[in-house]
Amino acid sequence: MSSYSVASPYNTETIYQDLREGILSLKYKPGQLLSENAIAAAYQVSRSPIRAVFSRLANENLLMILPQKGSYVTLIDYDFIREIIYMRTLVERDILKQAAASCDDKLIKNLESNLRKQHRLADLGSRADHERYYQIDNEFHQICFRHVGRDLLWQILQEHQVHYRRFRMLDILSQQILSKLVDEHELIAQVISSGDTNKLDQLIEEHLVNGLHRIEQLVMTEHPDYFYSSNSN
Amino acid sequence: MSSYSVASPYNTETIYQDLREGILSLKYKPGQLLSENAIAAAYQVSRSPIRAVFSRLANENLLMILPQKGSYVTLIDYDFIREIIYMRTLVERDILKQAAASCDDKLIKNLESNLRKQHRLADLGSRADHERYYQIDNEFHQICFRHVGRDLLWQILQEHQVHYRRFRMLDILSQQILSKLVDEHELIAQVISSGDTNKLDQLIEEHLVNGLHRIEQLVMTEHPDYFYSSNSN
DNA sequence: ACTTGTACACTTGTATACAAGTGTTAAAAA
DNA sequence: TTTTTAACACTTGTATACAAGTGTACAAGT
Hints:
2 copies of one chain form a homodimer. Chain A has 2 domains: 12-74, Arc Repressor Mutant, subunit A; 77-228, GntR ligand-binding domain-like (Four Helix Bundle (Hemerythrin (Met), subunit A), Up-down Bundle), CATH 1.20.120.530. In chain A, strand 1 (63-66) and strand 2 (70-73) form a beta hairpin. By secondary structure, chain A is mainly alpha-helical. Chain A is built from 10 helices and 4 strands; from the N terminus they run H-H-H-E-E-E-H-H-H-H-H-H-H-E. The A-B interface holds A 51-53, 55-56, 58-60, 79-80, 83-84, 86-87, 90-91, 94, 150, 152-153, 156, 160, 230-231 and B 51-53, 55-56, 58-60, 79-80, 83-84, 86-87, 90-91, 94, 150, 152-153, 156, 160, 230-231.
């Protein structure tokens, strides 16, 4: 290594995280071309580390590599999302029931703290940072998983549901008003602390499936070019 | 390309599938060293395509690349398995209930056909092809998913539960007698066709969790070097 | 005007030389 | 004998040259 001026300030793992986060946050749009040379130049490295990164992204279905043509950010698979939501509903239902059954002051305190954060952001109206809201929304659910000792499952779900994450991001970004989402979380928290698990089934179902309807009606008309249906093709 | 004698008979995708299948079928043992040069030589290609493959495998947590040291087949994460089984139990419970509710002749015919295959293999005793049994076992569950219109979810679960697959393979390989597994499937099929969904919850739970107990008692003592616990470390 | 063909500027795929870290082995020094 | 040191045979990481396919732009021919 020639000491200075040649070495890139980025290491391969950082570049991978960067690109991945860029795709998941919709900074790189579904369908967009990502060229090895362009990315390599941007990060001041050769194509070698970029190719390793591209291979990983392609393997996660975030990038589609077409030999001799180009590499493109994958479209969001609508059918994929539907199945993930079905699974998430089943899991979340069970987790939240357990949380309600073993609810204590600590859990209530954590959930209320999270809800305050959600309110603070929602109160900003259109000036709210929607990406930040996504994080806090996620945190709400994670608190429940962690409370019943399933933090690892939460992490597994996160890592494996990359398509779902882009869908959620798009859903939140297209929300004019965040308060509706906050209200749903508020309701869930109430049910957990009151232990009234009867209402929970329908509540969770609605909370997760609502997003699917919103996407169907609103986003599919605005960004049909972002989506893809593996069944209809 | 110099026409002949130089080009490898393998393409990169084939090599990837090969190595992946090798790891999942336990042909490559957990903890075993896989060197880029060795694999490259075996497939008569340079390190470049192998590195791409290794990157993908590492990203799926099937290979651990230690820079300047070597690349090793990952150990099976015990805590990971536990969480996957928890999730699988929830999903399978719901799927099988739906299957029981919408049971028809076609479903019964498919399940019985599958069970006959299981019996044929189990009757061979110790001469049975255990890897083949794994496939048929899988097929049994897939039939149920497909019947309720969730074939895509089945595929998603398959792709994402690579650790679980190694666990199942090890479980089946260590079974002296396959008939116990066949009996469990037989019972599940009966419940589906009879529509007696009350027993289903416990049945599925046992069917999936039994493997966990078997591994705890039997395999952990025979192959402790195959396993790893992310919680205790 | 239309068609055809060619050159060129892209794209990813592969092979290879070298960089740099690690661990072992064996020889040399204490 | 013990310790230290140096050489060597590995490992993966990076940069680079070239191979080969694709699409476009533009000019020549019909």
